[in-house]
């Protein structure tokens, strides 16, 4: 922290013209969330830096609506046709009604009905079958898990579901991976927008992936519209149907086809990337802590048994399984510095005044690893989410989905999906480390989400389940 100055009273990292504080950030060799956590331990919970020319606050708390804006960025503008989505669009009345429409549509499919349960359970059957086809050999579970989660989201968004070898599914997974690789957090072109006028292979790849995505989704949109114009539209089958009907509502008339397409694309991207990453982190931790896996399996056996699939209604019966999910979301939040926020008005934070437009990064990683709030925060201990009677307990300062007007719009959907996936997997199979292979590295790589490195597992069927069911 040598060379630290103050800007508007807030401690600020050293800076030079044009590059701002970037030389200090990149020479640290640390991913931003770890670097920022180290700095805030020394400088306090509020400090600042210059990302190129952009004055940016790094904080541990924000205050609701004042910070509900989003900055303009080259990569996300391309991704969203200039902010016709939810996540990267700046705050506006249109964004608000658009977000409300998406929220209602999710409720329609996920939370309130048995539809999501049906979709996930069918994906779990296929996933277990695929994992067990390894017949005791070690393999990387990433592809199978991603395919299963992608299938759930495909069904939810446009009523499609694919076999593993399906060409369209490969296309979807291919473009999604391409986008994840090219929208890295803190990409230089998002700091210096003029760079987009120079040759840039990463931006070219992003544009190619977006083109593939748009072609595929436009086809789905056209099919859905054609069905709607065929007379009585009936009940919405999926998110696209629900968005098209919502578009017709009076107050939503400004929601264009572009908005519908971008929202479907985003629900898709967010749905796949976050859920599969969280599941892969949890499996990685279970390999480090076989005793946690066993305890979850004992709970499942005692409270649900091995004669029937786990259902959403079993959630209250399985506090330890829930605690494993909570601890996974705490120790490796998929979005450790959230999506950048901006101040919408002249406001203040920690007694310091903040100018409109100031970029704000919320360091969720630091919040989830504060030693004064969490006992040995670097350890994977699901029990911290249980009270002394073994019932669920929710400590404060645990916000893996963010908070306030920009809180994750898919939270309930994601929680439901994570619960059904994890509990069904642990009911039917066990994960173990391949003999003589080290346990997975847990540091993770920060791109648009925090991803675990590739690792391998051995999958074995659980005695009891296979006898009555045809999964193997
Ligand atoms: C935003 C976490 C799953 C859709 C966010 C944010 C976080 C987050 C941290 C940013 C909040 C902020 O910037 O303040 C997660 C986690 C998930 C998950 C941990 C699962 C494990 C999903 C799913 C969907 C979704 C399944 C949709 C199908 C969104 C959208 C936003 C968002 C649209 C933008 C909200 C806004 O800017 O108003 N999520 N998410 N997420 N998430 Fe999720
Ligand atoms: C993932 C790749 C997709 O092709 C596009 C996409 C859309 C929404 C993004 C998501 C990506 C990454 C995770 C994000 C999500 C919106 C909210 C979510 C950023 C880029 C999180 C965790 O904040």
Automatic annotation (TrEMBL):
The keyword Transmembrane does not apply. Gene3D superfamilies: Cytochrome P450. Coiled coil: none annotated. Keywords: Endoplasmic reticulum, Heme, Iron, Membrane, Metal-binding, Microsome, Monooxygenase, Oxidoreductase. It comes from the Eukaryota. GO terms for molecular function: heme binding; iron ion binding; steroid 17-alpha-monooxygenase activity. Its cofactor is heme. Pfam families: p450. One of its GO terms (cellular component) is endoplasmic reticulum membrane. It is found in: Endoplasmic reticulum membrane; Microsome membrane. GO terms for biological process: hormone biosynthetic process; progesterone metabolic process. InterPro entries: Cyt_P450, Cyt_P450_CS, Cyt_P450_E_grp-I, Cyt_P450_sf. It is a peripheral membrane protein. Heme binds at residue 408. Belongs to the cytochrome P450 family. PANTHER family: CYTOCHROME P450 FAMILY 17 POLYPEPTIDE 2 (PTHR24289:SF19), STEROID 17-ALPHA-HYDROXYLASE/17,20 LYASE (PTHR24289). This is Uncharacterized protein.
């Amino acid at each position: 922290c040598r060379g630290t100055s103050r800007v508007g009273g807030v401690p600020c990292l050293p800076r030079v013209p044009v590059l701002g504080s970037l030389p200090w950030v990149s020479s640290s060799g640390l991913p931003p969330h770890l670097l920022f956590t180290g700095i805030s331990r020394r400088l306090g919970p509020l400090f600042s830096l210059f990302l190129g020319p952009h004055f940016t606050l790094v904080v541990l708390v924000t205050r609701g609506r004042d910070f509900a804006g989003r900055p303009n960025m080259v990569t996300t503008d391309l991704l969203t046709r200039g902010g016709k989505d939810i996540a990267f669009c700046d705050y506006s009345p249109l964004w608000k009604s658009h977000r409300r429409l998406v929220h209602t549509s999710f409720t329609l499919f996920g939370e309130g009905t048995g539809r999501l349960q049906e979709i996930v359970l069918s994906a779990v059957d296929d996933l277990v079958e695929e994992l067990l086809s390894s017949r005791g050999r070690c393999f990387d579970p990433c592809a199978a898990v991603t395919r299963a989660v992608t299938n759930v989201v495909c069904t939810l968004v446009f009523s499609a579901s694919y076999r593993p070898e399906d060409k369209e599914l490969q296309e979807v997974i291919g473009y999604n991976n391409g986008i994840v690789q090219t929208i890295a957090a803190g990409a230089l072109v998002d700091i210096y927008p003029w760079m987009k006028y120079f040759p840039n292979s990463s931006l070219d790849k992003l544009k190619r992936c977006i083109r593939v995505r748009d072609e595929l989704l436009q086809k789905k949109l056209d099919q859905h519209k054609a069905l709607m114009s065929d007379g009585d539209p009936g009940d919405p089958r999926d998110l696209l149907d629900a968005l098209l009907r919502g578009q017709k509502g009076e107050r939503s008339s400004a929601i264009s086809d572009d908005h519908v397409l971008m929202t479907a694309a985003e629900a898709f991207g967010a749905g796949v990337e976050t859920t599969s990453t969280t599941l892969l982190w949890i499996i990685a931790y279970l390999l480090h802590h076989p005793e946690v896996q066993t305890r979850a399996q004992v709970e499942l056996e005692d409270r649900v048994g091995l004669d029937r699939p786990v259902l959403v209604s079993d959630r209250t019966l399985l506090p330890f399984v829930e605690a494993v999910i909570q601890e996974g979301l705490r120790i490796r939040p998929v979005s450790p510095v959230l999506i950048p926020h901006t101040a919408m008005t002249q406001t203040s934070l920690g007694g310091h005044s903040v100018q409109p437009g100031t970029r704000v990064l919320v360091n969720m990683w630091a919040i989830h690893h504060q030693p004064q709030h969490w006992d040995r925060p670097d350890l994977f201990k699901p029990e911290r989410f249980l009270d002394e009677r073994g019932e669920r307990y929710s400590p404060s300062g645990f916000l893996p989905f963010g908070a306030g007007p920009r809180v994750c719009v898919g939270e309930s959907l994601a929680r439901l999906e994570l619960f059904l996936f994890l509990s069904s997997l642990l009911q039917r199979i066990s994960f173990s480390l391949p003999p003589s292979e080290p346990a997975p590295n847990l540091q993770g790589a920060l791109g648009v989400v925090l991803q675990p490195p590739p690792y391998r597992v051995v999958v074995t069927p659980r005695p009891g389940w296979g006898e009555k069911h045809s999964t193997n």
